[in-house]
Write a structure and sequence with these properties.
Blueprint: H1 2-25, H2 37-45, H3 53-66, H4 69-84, H5 86-97, H6 104-107, H7 111-123, E1 129-133, E2 138-140, E3 143-145, E4 150-154, H8 155-159, H9 162-165, H10 204-221, E5 222-226, E6 234-235, E7 241-242, E8 248-252
Antiparallel strand pairs: 1-4, 2-3, 5-8, 6-7
């Protein structure tokens, strides 16, 4: 893990250096010139003591990992759920067949795929634990939470609470999201795959767009089932991943 961390940081440092050179030379063609997130951070760090180059690197690494691994995990567990629930895979196949081409507007019309992804996020949240530091003393449910105490919330406890989600809280039932998140359970704040409030994940819309598009093309091309070698062992060390991978058997569709 340490070697991987060093390699990623070195990669990001080279990327930032190369981007600075491009910005100084202004070599981009006018038609493709646009400010990138990394440009915003580089410019924000100029002449400031409270935003160092190290913070530019750290933020870039965070965006790289959070924007890739979590979406990959969402798709991995969605593939797993569709493999063990072929009736929903069949419904998803039927939906994608209704679209000959997929453009930006049509992505939002993939209702069955969206319900499946939301339910996958409920049962297998990519970030299963949320930690927050109390900035001032609070009282919640009769308990005093002192200032600076770290609070850790388990999304599994929230997402599978039967008082909130009903008696089938442990089951894969995408239909619960047929009328949106607000109607899926008794309290929408009990569904936190992307957090909530001012610290809601800024990549939520992009992640869901990516997941819908990738799942659309997978379903358009393949059917699948779990490989006999699969061992179910979710690992929650950092993000929720299958400890022994997700081997599946793909069958190309005609």
């Amino acid at each position: 893990m340490l070697k991987d961390e060093v390699r990623i940081i070195e990669l990001v440092e080279r990327m930032i250096t190369r981007r600075k050179e491009q910005m100084s030379l202004n070599t981009e063609v006018e038609s493709v010139r646009q400010e990138k997130v990394i440009d915003m951070m580089i410019n924000a760090a100029k002449g400031r003591e409270d935003f160092s180059e190290k913070q530019v690197i750290d933020n870039s690494v965070t965006l790289l990992l959070a924007g890739h691994e979590t979406t990959a995990n969402l798709l991995t567990w969605t593939v797993y759920l569709l493999a063990i629930h072929p009736e929903w895979q069949k419904q998803a196949h039927a939906e994608v067949e209704g679209f000959s081409n997929l453009d930006f507007k049509e992505v939002s019309q993939l209702k069955t795929i969206s319900m499946i992804l939301w339910e996958s996020l409920r049962l297998f949240p990519p970030q299963p634990i949320i930690g927050r530091v109390c900035t001032r003393e609070n009282v919640a449910g009769g308990l005093v939470i002192p200032e600076k105490m770290e609070i850790v919330a388990s999304l599994f406890a929230l997402h599978c609470n039967r008082d909130i989600w009903g008696d089938n809280a442990d089951e894969f039932q995408p239909k619960r999201f047929a009328n949106g998140i607000n109607k899926a359970c008794k309290n929408p704040l009990a569904f936190l795959p992307f957090g909530s409030g001012p610290r809601t994940c800024i990549g939520q819309s992009l992640a869901l767009l990516e997941a819908r598009v990738i799942l659309y093309f997978m379903l358009k091309t393949y059917s699948w089932e779990l490989s006999p070698s699969y061992q179910h062992s979710p690992d929650i060390t950092l993000t929720l991943q299958p400890r022994f991978g997700m081997p599946i058997i793909l069958t190309r569709r005609n």
